[in-house]
Design brief:
Helix content: 25-40%
Number of strands: 15
CATH topology of the domain at 7-85: SH3 type barrels
Distance between the termini: 145 Å
Strand content: 25-35%
Oligomer: single chain
CATH superfamily of the domain at 7-85: PRC-barrel domain
Structural class: alpha+beta
Shape: elongated
Order of helices and strands: EHEEEEEEEHEEEEEEEHHH
Number of helices: 5
Amino acid sequence: MTLPEQLLLSDLLRRRVRCDQGLEHGGGLLGWMHPPVHRLLGWVSRPSALSQRRLVWRLDQLRGLGEQEAFVQGEPSETDVATLERLPTLIGALLSGAGDEPLGSVADAAVELRSGRIRHYLVSRSDPRLPGSSRWRLSPDRILDQQPGRVFTALVGLDDLPLARASVRQEFLRYSRRWRDQMGEETSRLRDQFQQASGRFEERLEGWLEEPPWEEPLRSYRDDDERQRDGLDRQTRDRADVDRPDPLDDWPGLEGPEDRDPRPRDRYRGRDQVDDPWI
């Protein structure tokens, strides 16, 4: 049975220990670690809830992992509760940032099973026993100092650390922050487009104001059209007057100037007087 390259300490402790003889030795209780060099040496199981006896297993005794069991080979070392309380550990230690500001607590550790080296710790802002709480990765090189129950760093906040697992609240805050940033970028883009459009409108407006008014050329064009129309109407009337025959030419007794009697009054006074065509 192959082992994974990396495993969380909490995943190891939640499995019940079963040896190569087929015997079960209880569930995991805590990790056996050496904090100065950030290494996990083994873990402790509790075979009985009523007994004060505790079993310590070395990490190199681990042979396989099942769904609910950790398979080991060899015999464990026995110890008691008082001895375990004196074992140094960083799990559950208070994490302090810059200015000795409390930031959270160390909740878990990611361990290389082959060497036992701790790659990084998992930090919780609230109580790590709460299900679904967020976890941030704290690498050992960011730890400045450590004391029993205290870990000192130069962090300003947990947001300076990479997020390993987000809670529902943290996911909501992250999506809200991303949505707010996107809305800010979209608002800035729309504001720039509006400013550019306003600038182009102002330039066009200034150009329109500098041009001559539209009424004058329109009025001159209208005057030219009216004059041209009047000239065409006048030419048409003159041509019509020339081509139209004189209605008086066909009236009897009205001769042309060459046939007119040099004494018209005498003709109308005598007995040869003709009727006046207009009466």
